[in-house]
Specification:
mainly alpha; 2 strands; 219 residues
Length: 219
């Protein structure tokens, strides 16, 4: 599992170099106008487009992982992970370094919208991290169902060997296997639940963005 985690490094792709919590400042500009509202509208619509790109990337990642699990095409999957990582980084850069910074600037002075985008960004980062965790767990499989390697076994005759994995089944070993399976199942369920919670939070924030768009359009 550790080797696989080193290969599949999508979970940290939401980090943006130079990202600072609560950046921005200065006084608000007094030049509020209909043109400014139109600019805000364009930024919010662009943000929704970015979220659509993220959704498409997740769908592609999910399909690629399913194909990887079925066919074992590791190279193709690693290339897909690299491609998805670039897309996520690009989306995050546009949200954090461009949109959020603009909303915090004196020209716009919309801290509420900057915080809203920041909340979505936080949940997207959590979703991506847990998505990678789920894939790592599924790739590893439940402990009791994992294939064993016979590299360290003793081969005395062709097709015959003394398997180092053969051991007496005791109550202690049975309990250990059950505990390992339970720990795996709980980790997988927790990651899945975390993704579901993140998706719910993201959708709620996106509804707020749509309400803001509708309000601006009505002015």
């Amino acid at each position: 599992m550790e080797d696989f985690e080193k290969k599949v490094s999508i979970k940290d792709s939401m980090e943006i170099e130079g990202e600072e919590e609560g950046s921005g400042g200065g006084g608000c500009s007094s030049s509020s106008s209909s043109s400014k509202n139109e600019e805000i509208l364009q930024l919010l619509r662009k943000f929704l487009d970015i979220q659509q790109r993220r959704a498409q990337a997740y769908a592609k990642l999910k399909t690629g992982f399913s194909e990887y699990m079925n066919s074992g095409g590791e190279l193709a999957y690693q290339q897909l992970c690299s491609e998805i990582t670039v897309k996520f980084k690009d989306c995050s850069k546009q949200v954090v370094l461009e949109m959020e910074s603009l909303f915090l600037s004196p020209d716009y002075c919309r801290v509420d919208l900057a915080q809203l985008l920041r909340s979505v960004q936080t949940q997207e980062k959590q979703k991506l991290h847990l998505t990678a965790t789920i894939q790592l767990l599924k790739k590893a499989g439940r402990p009791s169902e994992r294939l064993v390697s016979h590299e360290n076994c003793l081969f005395k005759k062709p097709m015959e060997h003394e398997c180092v994995h053969v051991h007496e089944i005791t109550e202690a070993s049975g309990t250990e296997d059950a505990e390992a399976n339970a720990e795996y199942d709980n980790a997988l369920k927790e990651a899945i639940r975390g993704v579901q919670d993140a998706v719910t939070a993201i959708n709620e924030h996106l509804e707020e963005v749509r309400y803001e768009i509708a309000a601006l359009e009505a002015e």
